[in-house]
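Teaching note: in complex prediction, the entire set of molecules is handled at once rather than each chain in isolation. The prompt given to students was simply: 'Predict the structure of this complex.' The entities are:
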Amino acid sequence: MYNEKVMEHFYNPKNVGELKDPDGIGRVGNPTCGDIMQIAIKVKGDRIADVKFQTFGCGAAIATSSMVTEMVKGKTLDEAQEISNRAVADALGGLPPNKMHCSNLAADALHEAIKDYRAKYGGTDRNAATQAQVQAAGETAASTAAASDKPMSGEGKDKH
Amino acid sequence: MAETRRVYLDHAATTPVHPEVVKIMDYYMLEAFGNPSSIHSLGREARKGVEEAREQVAALMGATANEIVFTAGGTEADNLAIQGVAYGRRDVGNHIITSAIEHHAILHTCQHLEKEGYKVTYLPVDKHGMVDPDDVKKALTPQTILVTIMAANNEVGTIQPSAVIGRVVKEHGQAYYHMDAVQTYGNWPVNVNDLHVDLLTVSSHKIYGPKGVGALYLRKGVKLVPIVFGGSHERKRRAGTENVPGIVGFGKAAEIARETLDQRIAHNTALRDRLISGLLSPIDYAHLNGHPTQRLPNNVNISIEFVEGESMLLNLDMKGIAASSGSACTSGSLEPSHVLLAMGLPHELAHGSLRMTVGTDNNMEDMEHVIATLPDIVRRLRQMSPLYADKIKGHAAAPLTPAGEEHPHDV
Ligand SMILES: Cc1ncc(COP(=O)(O)O)c(C=O)c1O
Ligand code: FES
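The expected output is the structure of the full assembly:
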């Protein structure tokens, strides 16, 4: 019923667990069958520096959780926001038709985590958020903005 | 590398065919392959095989051979019983009584009849999955033509108070009493007279016989119209050239079951009880579903909190263990088991349900293998589970944001 890639992610899921002091958490429930998925992210600059998931659900739910965490690591929040349910399923080489709804969980939980982060740290607009942090970071602003995948010097100051 | 031990624990789904059954079926396919309706000797030999099987199937339920109608399985026998009685007794009444925990072969047939104007009462069950005979009594009306309540449930193994229900139906006088005994026959004593049944469904592939063969017991004098029309086979109850190898195989399987029933019960009971205690003690937040004592000897059904059934099944399968679950994620409809819900189990517990049904091909080492394997799987899955994380942190489950679009799941 599942292909090899799905089974591989199911048996050896990546990025399982909780993050210490996460910057954003998204938890969603599956209205179809009642499963639950939680994704926690750590953000540096405007990029996802670390991500972990916890899932209560079927093989497809666990495999898509693992897959989505692999896909977003190091991506900017905007890029991560663009990842669709379909893209996660495709990255796994497809899911059985009656399991497509499970892949919704993964992308939705991720989007919720991003929303949670943005709500906490500077509005829903990435530039606004980044600018706020950039200002907080003071004199290193220009260099950080240019290489936003590097950890920002001000990271952590305005959080928690 | 050591080969993974294979442990089949899904005997309620189907059983391996007994080698003696295979042997006799072979003979009726390769040698005595005639059509039982033919006059020639090959036909007569096939007829003899079918009639012998009828005796064997009848003997395991205390019936006589001419009360047995062979069908293409338990599902068809259930359909024949319910539709056959409903259509055949339309002039008598239009009310049917059944239970909420029946097999879909019963429930979906009843639902179909409701669309045709029949009235159906679905009786509730208690938390152990037991029907109350008093509820049957209260539900009977002058319109009632049929009461159909299973002998024992296929998911949780609860053995119903069938004989008591039988007496209640007999007191009513008019309604026929049908029983789906698919899980009971060959696993536990079934006697049509002790149970006061008028019709009774059995199936071959649950008792180490081939798939696609079953039978309906029809007490002499019971009125029923056929649902399959054609030739005059099975005394005009069920048309179609007999599935001779299947029927003969079913007969052999029934004979073996009758000769070994006591041993089978003792064997299965010992394995079942070891499995239940061996799993419930090391795994916390695990519960036995079904009745503590009125339970089929081969059935273990437990709910393990904070883990989902399908993910347990996939992990067990990797360790060579075949089981089943009532989780929504394992059902085609994405609904949790209607049996567990009818017993009042919350969705979370239905979600983590695991059914393991033992059989003659299992031994105690198999049970020890499962007992050594499952707790680790549960531990691993719980480490992944947000619900378990909540539990150990001691706070109530965080509120959920429903996931975005709802997709049709059957496309
Ligand atoms: C209680 C019950 N009734 C009916 C059936 C259907 O029997 P069959 O598979 O022979 O059609 C089953 C088998 O799944 C069953 O468990
Ligand atoms: S999470 Fe329930 S079917 Fe996938």
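Point out the following to students. Strands of chain A lie at 24-29, 36-44, 47-56. Residues 100-120 of chain A form the longest helix (21 residues).
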